[in-house]
# Entry
Amino acid sequence: MTINRIFALSGLLLILGIPTSSIAQEEPTRSITQITGDLYRGQNNNHFTVFLVTEEGIILTDPINPGFSAWLKSELDTRFDVPVKYVLYSHHHGDHGSGGDVFAETATFVGHENMLTHMAMPPESTPLPLEGQYAIAATMDANDNGLIEMNEASGAVLANFVGFDENEDGVLNGAEVLRGPISQVREPELTYATNMVISLGGKDVEMTWVGEMNHSSDMSVITFPEEKAMHIVDFVTFQRLPYREMDFENKMFDEWMTAINHWETVSKDYDFISPGHGPLGGASDVTEWREYFDQLQAAVSEGIATGQSLEEMRENIALPDYSDWSGYSWLHENVLGMYHFLTDE
Ligand SMILES: [Zn+2]
# Structure
């Protein structure tokens, strides 16, 4: 679609009262680029996956979402003419793990065993959550019936409505909101506890559990030993700030830093580090990511020590070394998250 046609269509939708943001989402940036040898990187806007092509089939990491995975399947069929035999999940979150169904005929789905715990539906009596990334949903319950009807939903809750609505009844209950927008994530049929090697066509791919931490408890780093390459998602990203409030309500900041430090060391043996968000990089990018936390923690610690209020810190703290990273406008939310990490009992 040309820019002019997008503008024309946007104008029409404005007249009709339809939000134009839905149009922008229909034109995702998608690409496939070679990392090295038979290892490739797939892109859907700000989300990235990797896949390894072997004579016996393809080992794919995160399928990202149904639109992307359908597009990817057709690209893979055309370019390589071998089926996807494995889908290896980094973790259960819907923005990375959705859309695997399209590969279900040929692929085995693999993830850390804690994916199943994260994906289990909480009890039906669960109220709309008051903390966490989707606590905002509770503020949308205009008729105060404890459910979010589609006409009450807005923002990220509306954008992910289908993802939340596991029982497809057109309303979201507290259990569905608490569980998260993961109804399009296909459950792993093969799970592991500490690490697992998947072999296909003479190639090995290794999944390693990252451990308990705030982001999720089912995170796998997926490594390609022969290619000296690594797929690492969300607990490490490149040239992008940590997402908003950093899941502070889950605590476990120390565990997160332990994981970052560990993988910073491991990454030095790898030539290609492909994050789930941000450009392909190397070990120095993991170091820059760790240094960001060092600076953020130092700034918030100093604010606390000098008696600043949280609001003052959110307004005043700047980390100019990172002003060219994407998500820099989230800095005040990172400050909030770090404040809680450092002060919550
Ligand atoms: Zn995630």
Remarks:
- The chain is about 35% helix and 20% strand.
- Residues 91, 93, 215, 234 surround zinc ion (CB under 6 Å).
